[in-house]
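Same chain as my last thread, 170 residues:
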Amino acid sequence: MAPHTRPGRSAGLLLFRRRGTGFEVLVGHMGGPFWARRESAAWSVPKGEYGPEEGAESAARREFEEEFGHPVPDGAWVALGESRQAGGKTVTVWAVEADLDPATAVPGTFTMEWPRGSGVQREFPEIDRFAWCAPEVAAERLVKGQRVFLDRLQGRLAGGQDPAVHDDGA
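reply #2:
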C-alpha cells in the first residue's frame, strides 16, 4: 500500500475508577453532527491518530490532553494492547486509575463544512461530553472496535494482579 492509503494508528487512555467490587470507565461522546443524535456505539476512549515520528504513548498523552482539556492524571499505565478496527486502523490503549470530574472537561475542537455542500465551515467539539460508566453501560456506548479494551481491563483487575506496566506513561 502507498503511504497515503495505509490504515492509520491511534492511541488513547481509558481512565478507570474502582467502585465497590467493580469499576467504572470514563468515555466520551463523539462530537459533530454525525454523532449528535446517537448514543449506542457513539462513544469513544479519548484517543487520536499519530504518525511514525511520534510514539504511541506520547500520542495517547497528547490526545487525552486535547480531548479532555486537562493533563493526564498521575498514575500507573496499564497496557491494554492493540485492536484492529473495522476500517483497518490499529488502536493502542492504556488504562490509568484516576477520578476526574467530567464536568471540568474542556474539549478540543475540529472544523468541517456543515451542512455538506454549503461552503460553511463550522467548529465542533471533538468530544461533546464525558461520562463515568459501569463496564456493561460502556460496552453499549462504545464503538464496537473499542469494547475489547473493557474486557481486557476487567480481566486485569479481576485477576488480582498488579496491573501496572510503568508509571506516568514514561
